[in-house]
Amino acid sequence: MIRTTTTLAFALISTMATAQQHSGRDENRVLSSAGPIQIEELATLEFPWGMEALPESGLLITEKVGALRRWSEADGLSDPISGLPEIEYQGQGGLLDVALHPDFAENGLVYLYYVMAAEDQPEEPALDNDPRLGPFVNTEDRVLKGGVVWRARLDGDTLVEGKELWRQEPFSVGLGQFGGRLVFRDDGTLIITSGDRQRFEPAQSYETNLGKILRINDDGSIPEDNPYWTAGSPLDAVWSLGHRNPLGAAIRPETGELYTHEMGPLYGDELNVPVPSGNYGWPEVSNGENYNRQPIAHHETALERFERPLFYWRPAVSPSGLMFYNGDMFADWKGNAFLGGLSVQALVRVSFDGENVSGSEQINLYRRVRDVMQADDGAILILTDYEDGKLLRLTPAE
Ligand SMILES: [Ca+2]
């Protein structure tokens, strides 16, 4: 499929306040192209990472340190839900995303993506740090581990009947870039984003599931209409390849298409519409550079066999979390996509003209935004990063 890559001809509309405004800013009110936005703090969490709306009311929220909690307007934040597996928390790893089965109201099934330490740890961990990581080479974290998708049934405040459905292969030592978002497609299959674990070439390898988007059934079996399905091959679950570190995935309601984004290296964050068997290029092509300045061919100059991003950011926004908005509260933004920006400390809004991107606005929140979702009433809910992370509610200011 050929899509037009949106170039930087679309200048970023920045609503960043001037330095003078910044010094006297009201932390609970920020500017946007749709007018001022009121920010309300609902809860404080430890490294919150993902959230999902419960059918009756309230949310389930993950904390990277290894806890899953409920939150509701009436009762606030719950104690951690019990019954979770042992989670390896360090750096970018820990308890990442949560998703609910499409029939959660009837079956109570909860899906978690978490990082697990290997049962057998090597005596001499292989530190295969790549010079392309530049200053991000890390030799301290020597635990052999990988991302796992796990399903259990929520019974009161306990997860029961836990079962591992999928895991990253192979596990690798330390570092980061696990991916870790989960989203159900309209056909009831589950999409998993798997990062390259800072190892580059596995994203192009037909031997591993690192650096891929995967698709499995709700019970962990593999859909036979996956593009590489041959029964028993490591590629059975692969939907698309050539991804670096995708931390956002959502289904666009108008089309039912899967949208994902991923962090580029130095610059070049991408928004993609992954099609079955599509190769999105990493690490052979990117619109960013390696951290040691070793050049990478840009998508525009590269071979036809690589799919180009629908849109890319340069400089980077460091995207995390993705949702399509269809509420009435921010009526001008209906149909737009929203993603969190970590490095830019902003909520990033993407508008569309049909299937192409028509613009990107950075709504500066002065906080690293980890995840974003829409509440039932059309308010925008946000999780911010770090040990005193917040659940925030954004509504139009009076
Ligand atoms: Ca790419």
Automatic annotation (TrEMBL):
Pfam families: GSDH. It comes from the Bacteria. Residues 1-19 form the signal peptide. Residues 45-393 form the Glucose/Sorbosone dehydrogenase domain. The keyword RNA-binding does not apply. SUPFAM superfamilies: Soluble quinoprotein glucose dehydrogenase. InterPro entries: 6-blade_b-propeller_TolB-like, Glc/Sorbosone_DH, Quinoprot_gluc/sorb_DH_b-prop. Keywords: Signal. PANTHER family: ALDOSE SUGAR DEHYDROGENASE YLII (PTHR19328:SF75), HEDGEHOG-INTERACTING PROTEIN (PTHR19328). This is Glucose/arabinose dehydrogenase, beta-propeller fold.
